[in-house]
Amino acid sequence: MTTEAKKCAHETCNCMVADGKKYCSTICEDSKGVTTLKCDCPHTGCSGHAL
Ligand SMILES: [Zn+2]
Ligand SMILES: [Zn+2]
């Protein structure tokens, strides 16, 4: 039984994602393949917002 938290696959996003998911939000998912320096996900505390 694994309860290891996983990070969002978005480069600049460090939000945790639910098991079985790659991105914390559809916003991050839509950003895949795009080189961006900030994350636009709605999660408070995401390091991608503080740039
Ligand atoms: Zn984020
Ligand atoms: Zn994310």
Number of helices: 1
The N- and C-terminal alpha carbons lie at a distance of 36 Å
Mean pLDDT: 85
Decide which structural class fits the backbone: little secondary structure
* Global shape: globular
Helical fraction: under 10%
Radius of gyration: 11 Å
Note down, in words, how this protein is organized.
- Helices cover 10% and strands 8% of the residues.
- With 51 residues, the chain is low in regular secondary structure.
- It has a domain at 1-32.
- The chain has a two-stranded antiparallel ribbon with strand order 1-2.
- The relative contact order is 0.28.
- One zinc ion (ZN) is lined by residues 8, 10, 13, 15, 23-25, 28, 39, 41.
Keywords:
51 residues, 8% strand, binds zinc ion, globular, little secondary structure
